Amino acid sequence: MPLIWTPLMNQEDGFRSYPGDYGKQRRPSLVIPVKNGNYHVKVALGDKEREGRTSIKAGAGSIMLQQIRTKAGEITEREFIVRVEQQELRLAFLGDVPQVQSLQIKPIHCPTIFLAGDSTVCDQCSGHYPYTGWGQALPLFLTAGAVSNHAKSGRSSKSFIQEGRLERLESLLGKGDLLLIQFGHNDQKNDERGTAPFADYLTYLAEYVATANNKGATPVLMTPVHRRAFTESRWLEDTHGDYVRAVVGLSQMLGVACIDLAEKSKQLFEALGPEGTKPLFMWTDPNEYPQYPEGTEDNTHFHVKGAIEIARLVYEGITEQEGLRQTFGQANKTLKEEQR
Fold first, then answer.
1. Looking at residue 13, what is its pLDDT?
2. SS3 category, 191
3. Residues of the chain with pLDDT under 50
4. Start and end of every SGNH hydrolase-type esterase domain (predicted)?
């Protein structure tokens, strides 16, 4: 099984970025030629003589395991499911002190969670690390399904469809799958991507819902995640306004599930406050990351830490849906302790 080193990529196409490049310390990626589909991975972590702290990423930086601690002499097993759509199963063993004893991989038939959205959701390219979409962190919370992230930076509900991306999703969706739909950030733009919240925004979102329903999949509408936009009174400013209300109203009209990520993220951000939310967003110091020598102050896009916390909210929203809890509600039992 070949281990390969790859250059950092700044193109948005996820298949050009390899998981070993998503970290301060880059490592080679394990690349295994396979047929497209879902694969169950069982890994034994630890070492007889040394402590370990192991993270595993797959595909284009999807977080499968995050800093799993093992004591010297301890061996522990973990399982996860990887989605393959480019005929390569890609894994990278990262973390402070990665310790991997064995690896078992086999095909599996299971539901897939497909994601349609923008830069807050997408698989960010390796050259932009530690920028991370919450879709890259969602696999961390799942043991009963795969994640296929089709979100792309800069897309609105309109431009995603115009570029043929929903058509691509339609070719992949199947019975029992899930389609999470989160747009709004770019629908607000005053350019060709823009939509009106109670007009064509609803029309486009309804097209996603119909596409999922026609393939026997379950559509889930999502209100857009909040920006880090605090008022002087320490409360968040509602920067999405009618787009949030439009999503909630459409879900009620069509009778489909809705995850109110705007409200969930609002509660989280206001509890943490202006300073406490900085580590969740792309606020970095000069030279903290070589690709950002001047540092960054981005109040829209997430750092790895923030992507994990938003993915936690999304997973919570999935398990709150009565019809989805049984299928996708099997979270990693040790995740809460390992991530806090």
1. 60
2. coil
3. 332-340
4. 117-287
Task: Report CA dihedral (239, 243, 244, 250) to the nearest 10 degrees.
Answer: 180
Q: What are 142-182's pLDDT values in tens digits?
A: 988 999 999 999 999 999 999 999 999 999 999 999 999 99
- Report which of 210, 60, 182 is spatially closest to residue 119, judged by C-alpha positions: 182
Based on its alpha-carbon atoms, the radius of gyration of the chain, rounded to whole angstroms, reads: 19
pLDDT value at residue 335: 46
What is the CATH class of 112-328? alpha beta
The number of beta carbons lying within 10 Å of the beta carbon of residue 20 is: 25
Q: Which of 127, 93, 139 is nearest to 307 (CA)?
A: 139
Say how many residues make up the chain. 340
Burial 220-242 (b: 16+ CB within 10 A, else e): bbbbbbbbbebeeeeebebbbee
Adjacent-strand bridge partners of 178 = 113, 218
> Which residues make Cβ contacts (< 8 Å) with residue 276, sequence separation at least 6?
none
Beta-bridge mates of residue 75: 46
N-terminal to C-terminal alpha carbon distance within the chain: 34
Rounded to an integer, what is the distance from CA 125 to the centroid of its chain? Answer: 13
Q: Which residues are catalytic?
A: 119, 297, 301
What pLDDT does residue 330 have?
61
Which long-range contacts does 304-309 make (Cβ < 8 Å, 24+ apart)? 304/63, 304/130, 304/132, 304/137, 305/279, 305/280, 306/132, 306/279, 306/280, 306/281, 307/63, 307/132, 307/133, 307/134, 307/136, 307/137, 308/63, 308/66, 308/137, 308/140, 308/339, 309/268, 309/280
Task: Kindly give the residue spans of alpha helices, DSSP state H, lying in the chain.
Answer: 134-137, 157-162, 165-172, 200-214, 242-254, 261-276, 304-319, 322-328, 335-339
Residue pair 101/75 in contact (Cβ under 8 Å)? The answer is yes
CA angle 22, 23, 29 (to 5 degrees): 55
- The angle at the Cα of 174, spanning 147 to 254, to the nearest 5 degrees, equals 90
- So where are the chain's domains? 3-109, 112-328
